[in-house]
Automatic annotation (TrEMBL):
Cofactor requirements of the protein: pyridoxal 5'-phosphate
Ranges for region Disordered: 1-23
Family classification: Belongs to the trans-sulfuration enzymes family.
Keyword terms, alphabetized: Pyridoxal phosphate
Organism: Aquipuribacter nitratireducens
Name of the protein described by the UniProt record: Trans-sulfuration enzyme family protein
Length: 403
């Protein structure tokens, strides 16, 4: 298989080349399969019997994602299902480890997470804190070295987003891995925390968390990978087989399974990720540069800009700054005026589709309070950049109007 990720994503996950056979995997629309019993009278575990345990359509997309990320991919029903699977597997692993070394119930799981991250992730962890006693340490991702310092104090799971949604900070994954390694040297059982990275903003083309030292790479495939705003889908890619098996067991047990047609659409979207990403990323860079010259904009958050706090790390850790940027306006009212005034930019939640989206994230009650009230998240699509800029510029102009 060629080394270039842009080429691999086109060819990965295809069926064997057989004369007269299909080029693309088909949608496997079946819930039930013929049974096969082994010589011991038990069901043969190598043969699927029910679609909740896996389908051929899932496996094609899992193979492609695993190849791109360098691990074993486990497909799930949505991005938040993938987040939940990663968190629950880490907590179960911690509980099993504690059972070997402490009295029952004596261990309180500890999770380190950025205080500004995807609101669904923060809400999940706070729910686990309130209902199951998980110690959740929320750290400001804008403070240099803060996440590494918290990880060095010991944890069962360090959950990262890089870039952070929606404030665009970057975290040094290698430095966090080094911190958890140091913490393991003083831990009672000598085992280190798992490091999980939500890499949705970057996609597998711009960043590979497992190669940077993470144990889990998490993606909302709903976003740029599928790319057409028509699918709910998620995945976790594990760096070792044991974690992958735990993730598959979680998926089967909880029923957080994707539909076969959604998996097929996700694989079809993956094929064009590189060309969509290149165009949208180039446009994002142009728009970020122009927006910071507008008098309505107080700050542009985009790691592709040379003076952005995350620029140096993005250059080292990523293969491009991505298609997302954020604009800080004076206040919530100004940001809402922009969102209401655009004609091409769609005022909507989500990101990564072919259409450009804009949203004031603090309009959602669950959004972390550290996100500025006047912050607009912009997901750049594949429209002509000049059209996008004209629309954004006139909306920014109108945001300055009063009355």
């Amino acid at each position: 298989m060629p080394d270039s990720p842009a080429t691999r994503l086109v060819h990965a996950g295809r069926p064997p080349a057989v004369g007269g056979g299909p080029l693309n995997p088909s949608v496997e629309l079946s819930s039930t399969y013929h049974a096969l019993t082994g010589p011991d009278g038990m069901a043969d575990p190598s043969v699927r019997s029910y679609a909740r345990g896996g389908t051929g359509t899932w496996q094609a997309l899992e193979a492609a994602l695993g190849e791109l990320e360098g691990g074993e991919a486990v497909l799930l029903a949505s991005g938040i299902a993938a987040v939940t699977a990663g968190v629950e597997v880490a907590l179960a692993r911690a509980a099993a480890r504690a059972a070997d070394t402490t009295a029952p119930g004596a261990h309180r799981p500890r999770v380190v997470v950025p205080s500004r991250a995807y609101s669904g992730t923060v809400a999940l962890l706070r729910h686990l804190r309130d209902t199951r006693g998980v110690d959740v340490v929320e750290v400001d991702p804008a403070l240099p070295g803060a996440l590494e310092a918290a990880a060095a104090q010991g944890a069962d799971l360090v959950w990262l987003e890089t870039p952070v949604n929606p404030t665009m900070e970057l975290t040094d994954v290698r430095a966090v891995r080094a911190a958890v390694e140091r913490a393991a040297t003083t831990a009672a059982d000598g085992r280190r925390a798992l490091v999980a990275v939500d890499s949705t903003f970057a996609t597998p083309l711009l960043q590979n968390p497992l190669a940077l030292g993470a144990d889990l790479a998490v993606h909302s495939l709903t976003k740029a990978v599928s790319g057409h705003s028509d699918v709910l889908l998620g995945a976790v890619v594990a760096g070792d087989g044991d974690l992958a098996e735990r993730l598959r067991e979680h998926r089967t047990r909880t029923g957080a399974v994707p539909g076969p047609f959604e998996a097929w659409l996700g694989l079809r979207g993956l094929r064009t990720l590189d060309v969509r990403l290149q165009r949208a990323q180039a446009s994002a860079h142009v728009l970020a540069g122009r927006a910071r010259g507008h008098r309505a904009v107080r700050r542009v958050r985009y790691p592709g800009l040379a003076d952005d706090p995350g620029h140096a790390l993005a250059t080292e850790q990523m293969r491009g700054p991505g298609t997302l940027l954020a604009l800080d306006l004076a206040d919530a009212a100004a940001a809402e005026r922009v969102a209401a005034a655009t004609r091409l930019w769609v005022h909507a939640t989500s990101l990564g589709g072919v259409e450009s989206l804009v949203e004031r994230r603090r309009r959602h009650p669950a959004e972390p309070l550290g996100v500025p009230e006047g912050l607009l998240r912009l997901s750049v699509g594949i429209e002509d950049v000049e059209d996008l800029w004209r629309d954004l510029e006139q909306a920014l102009d109108r945001s300055l109007e009063r009355g």
